[in-house]
Amino acid sequence: MNKTVQRLLWAGAGVAALAAANSAIFAKAKAQGNPLGGEGRFWPGPYGDLFYARQGKGLPVLLLHGVYEGASSYEWRKNFDSLSEHFNVYALDLLGFGLSDKPRIDYTGQKYIEQIEQFIKEVIKEPCAIVASSLSSAYAVQAAHDLPDLIQNLILVCPTGLRRLSKEPGAKTELAYQLLHAPLIGTTVHNALTSVPSLRYYLMNQTYFDPSYVDDEMIEHYFTVSHQYGSQNAPPAFIGGLLNHSVAAAFPALTQKAIRIVWGREARMTPLSDAEAFLAANARAELSVFDKSGLLPQDEQAQGFNRLVVELLTEDAPRATRTRSKKPQENE
């Protein structure tokens, strides 16, 4: 046997071993359940079935989680029950995440916008409010611009689309996407990014202000969600910039009743300084800042966050004082 054949055999064995290791990691993950409770249903969207939980009566409120490895409506677990005491709350798992289908397709920001708009038209079917987090805020802004009669209030948590995650993907990010979209390489990188040590580091150092929030139960949840079959299909599009969406045109044109920007003061990846661009772009926008909070004030400061949402969306509640200074309104 010549050396070339030997090398090919060793390479093939290495690829097979890597593929087997990837499959074993997914096989070990537990089955995922609905983290919120309420009434769980599936809606047949244009690219696959989308899972959503619904609970409550009154004004419809749609909760949209952020986009990242292991993302799902779990992000709203401390808000769903509380808000459903006042509103008819829908918590949607975006395509490729949570309990929704995870097809191997080309994911784009525009596809997500289309799905959100169609979900509102076909499932909610009446004027609603959207509470969105991170990149999903950009999709919510575009949907509100397109459907002003159906989306009457917006609450955006650490939004993107003006300074961050707004540019079209470049050559380098396109190459990264192609590599990560390749089955073997992509799944291997996905498993590395969603290993227990990687998840713990990201959540403790990039997501939460108080690392004590990150316990073993949370890590187990994120590991489980990110190792359901197909969960490696959507994240490469995020890393490669295909999910970016600019709201430079849509956000200044919004005329919704309430446009509230919410930020965690200690947010790292999307810092509080980004809020100034949103306040400058639309005079109707108002800012609320939660101390002792990172990217997820709805989790770290859930009680104050829930109170803010109820006050904003209840018609007879007094409006909070408008804040546009460098020292924004604080909420405890």
UniProtKB/TrEMBL annotation:
<dbReference type="InterPro" id="IPR029058">
    <property type="entry name" value="AB_hydrolase_fold"/>
</dbReference>
<dbReference type="InterPro" id="IPR000073">
    <property type="entry name" value="AB_hydrolase_1"/>
</dbReference>
<dbReference type="GO" id="GO:0016787">
    <property type="term" value="F:hydrolase activity"/>
</dbReference>
<keyword id="KW-0378">Hydrolase</keyword>
<protein>
    <submittedName>
        <fullName>Alpha/beta hydrolase</fullName>
    </submittedName>
</protein>
<dbReference type="Pfam" id="PF12697">
    <property type="entry name" value="Abhydrolase_6"/>
</dbReference>
